[in-house]
Write a structure and sequence with these properties.
alpha/beta; about 250 residues; elongated; 5 strands; 2 domains; five-stranded parallel beta sheet
Length: about 250
């Protein structure tokens, strides 16, 4: 009866995994040879892992990564791509987020920029950090709609708060002045808060100024990114879609 009451109370405290492990230990004769401390440690470790796994799952779901299955372990280091494996390993630790640094991933269309950015996003989610992935054209459209629906501040606030913001298709198209101002507001707020960003672009940062257009806004945007940024440039002319025979550059 005592064991039954303990299991009920564990479940009432939302310690379901611990309750199942306690029940298993009761029915497993081998556990009787373990010390009290070892048995408690086993129950606590399982409950803790369950909580962490749940947080990671929620973080991944909210991140809406462009390639949900992307992970650092899946990055291909073909010689012609010239990807620095040591740098990738360092960035996968997410120390750059703690240090308020950014990442810029550049390369030709189909080079695998999105996969690498989403792999870093996955690593951040595994560390239970909040992540948001968005294509820049979609973000700008979202902001335009938000203005029309008087929801602009709410959308801006969302993109300001996440620990890691991944902006894909960065400056693929030239910006209008209003779009550049919207972008500056988000980047300035995140820069001031020390929040990290990842930029995926076909263009070298030197070419961003022309895409932004207005010289003053271009200086303001680029100054907050370029001087505080790790660079990963993917070499090679072959698209990963062509190389792997897939519809997406998932490597």
């Amino acid at each position: 009866m005592l064991d039954s009451n303990t299991i009920v109370r564990m479940n009432d405290l939302h310690l379901g995994t611990m309750a199942k492990e306690f029940e298993r230990q009761i029915s497993d004769p081998a556990c009787q040879n373990l010390s009290f401390e070892d048995r408690i440690a086993m129950m606590v470790d399982l409950q803790w892992r369950c909580r962490v796994d749940s947080r990671v799952e929620r973080a991944l779901k909210k991140a809406k990564l462009g390639i949900p299955g992307a992970c650092v372990e899946g990055i291909l280091y073909h010689a012609d791509r010239k990807i620095d494996k040591n740098l990738v390993a360092r960035l996968a630790s997410c120390a750059y987020i703690a240090d308020s640094k950014n990442i810029c991933v550049t390369g030709a269309s189909g080079a695998g920029k999105t996969f690498i950015a989403c792999a870093f996003g996955n690593s951040a989610c595994r560390n239970t950090l909040t992540v948001a992935y968005v294509r820049l054209p979609e973000l700008l459209n979202e902001l335009a709609v938000a203005k029309a629906e008087n929801n602009y501040r709410t959308v801006i606030s969302h993109y300001k708060k996440v620990r890691l913001l991944i902006l894909d298709e960065w400056l693929l198209y030239s910006l209008r002045v209003g779009e550049a101002r919207d972008l500056l507001e988000i980047i300035e707020a995140r820069s001031s808060a020390g929040a990290s960003m990842i930029f995926c672009s076909q263009f070298d940062p030197k070419g961003w100024y022309e895409k932004i257009g207005d010289p003053t806004l271009a200086d303001a945007v680029c100054d907050r990114i370029i001087h505080n940024c790790f660079r990963i440039h993917i070499e090679g002319n072959d698209s990963m879609r062509k190389r792997l025979g897939t519809d997406s550059a998932e490597v």
